[in-house]
Amino acid sequence: MNIRDFDSRYPLLAALEAPDQIGTMAGDSLRTLAGEIRSFIIESVAHTGGHLGAGLGVVELTLALFAEFRFNTCDKLVWDVGHQCYPHKLITGRAGQFSTMRQWGGLSGFPDPNESPYDTVKTGHGGTSLSTAMGFALAWRGQQADAARKAVAVIGDGSLQEGNAYEALNHGGSFKDLNLVVVLNDNNMSISPSVGAMSDYLSRVRSSTWLNERLRTIQRAIKRIPGIGDNIEDVLQRWYHSLQGIIPQHALGIIFEELGFFYYGPIDGHDIDALRHAFRSTHWMRRPVLIHVVTRKGLGYKDDVPDTTCYHAAPPSKVVSAGVVAEFPQQGGPSFTTAFAAHVAVMLERDPRTIVLTAAMLEGNGLTEVQQRFPERCIDVGMAEQHTVGVAAGLALAGYRPICAIYSTFLQRAFDQVFQEVALQRAPVLFCLDRGGLVGNDGATHHGVFDIAYLRCLPNFTLMAPRDTGELVQMMDLAATCDGPVAIRFPRGASAQPQAQLPASSFAVGEAEYVEEGSDGCLLAYGPMTYVALEVRRQIEAATGRKLCVVNARFAKPLDERLIAAELERQPVVFTLEDHVVAGGFGSAVAEFAITHRHDAARLEILGLPDLFIEHGERAQQFASVNLDVDAITQRVSARLESAAPLRRPVRLVKVT
Fold this sequence. Notes:
Rossmann fold; seven-stranded mixed beta sheet; 26 helices
């Protein structure tokens, strides 16, 4: 966005030099500033793409927090998940950088301490804020110099469903002298509408509060009194906010009170004055406090559109996306997510034992229409991955064929259930891990680059990765016949174009596929990296005449040991390619096999992601940054081929089938 337009069209935002100024602004000015922030976010995200609805819902809440707390010198603010941090970023000095949001080298779409000292921690997963904030509060507990410091966690009702959040509430409430403030941002949403008993409870608190209803009735009557109506209304409003703090035991916040938190609310989360009053009224307390704030996600954007999920995230404009480079020339087909969801519907239709579960990610996993068709067999359990896996294990042991549709980065949260309830029991659960590999603009918090490592170490698991959407369907059908747990990983984004996809062929568990023959080296690729390998082969053959063998590995566990052994014996060099960290990944599995079976491991070279967190940007930019794009791989393979010693014994070619 042009800085001149920014100054003229958003004068209060442009004049805001430091968040400390917010506390000195009058109510009318703050409300005007809130409108500017809301308009600025809508305009900016329309260009850059990003999480839209969450930030729009907390504009007034953010301003009230910065007006009443001292986050620059004293207090700490932790945003749960973090995708609602756009207003926070705007008022902490980053408005001029918003045109770089979620782009390579630009602002992150989540809090990031590398950008600002106001960003306490780098967050991207839900349910974690309470524990982190409690850690700060415990560190200050008993320290005279820190007696007035407040640790503030802002958590949504969707994130409150996470087991981690309940653990923190249970522990935090046991301390009667802890300066912990939990702001429950209740908008009845995660990405999709919130589900479960806690959501129902909060809905009842929201909609049936006797005091709220009576206040609105009295306000309307008082306003009609000539001359003094406005003054009396102001007194009544003050009385109401004070009264909120002393009636929780009469039903409003009884759950939180029983957990040891002083409950205050519910409060209109778009009323800055009411929010400031709540924070000020509880600031003197030296005990855990929970302030219940009711907001509306996406406020100000398509308010007349009933589809509440439409504003969760917006794609970037064509101007931003025009320069996106394809990861391989054949890319541009349907997304893996679309193909997965379509075949889930087929499997549900075909087998009444099939049930699909997701953790608050119906939309992200493409399952919204599937749930509409099969409401009893497509279950959203809420933002609770551990529970999702546990339920799936129970269903599997009861004779069903459950499918867990979970992003790779989110399955990490349920590792103990994957181990204890699934692997140990040999429960036939199918894990379909969307966003396997680098995820692009969401960045380091969301990359699914560790799943092979944390699943391969567990007995009884079968691990697969399809080269394209056609093979994904085959793998899902194969998994339905397995008698133990299976995980299929696939990336975010487009597969190969249908006309460019390799011909389908049937295969069994642990069976790899020869795609191209060659005797100058072998490219052993996992998943869609098969198409990257084909392009590398083409370029090297065009430049040098050398012909490389290309293998679609299909399985990281069990490996096709016979094929891999043959290639290690007959080739001068074997490269493994994967969209996963090198440590513990597919290439590591091949190396372990080579060493265990006395093959020449010196011929093996593992190409994967390095031991570092990769920041946000387009996937192609992320691959290029770690030399895992087509050009970099071609150069590295070519250099190794030049230095590879020729075999001293005749090469016995393996017949390609």
